[in-house]
């Protein structure tokens, strides 16, 4: 059985010193940046989700998978509507809703075992 030999000395590597001159420095002041510049404009056929209220199983697809529909409240509209999971583009809200729902189910299961 052979072993690899440990390298105890390393060859010289080139080094260079960087100089930082105040003249070359660029100051990115937050006051100069537009507020919420990371948010994109909505298209004409896009609507913003305010919150998710409920979830239900939708009908099976041709491949045998069941989808989910969410009861969605839209910003600027009073009535919620059921929307297929595929049609929603609000990943953070979906994740938060699913995580909260899982937490509630776990809490209810713990309470039922205590009784």
From TrEMBL:
Pfam families: Chromo
InterPro entries attached to this UniProt entry: Chromo-like_dom_sf, Chromo/chromo_shadow_dom, Chromo_domain
Gene3D superfamilies per UniProt: 2.40.50.40
Domain Chromo: 47-109
Superkingdom of origin organism: Eukaryota
UniProt-recorded name of the protein: Chromo domain-containing protein
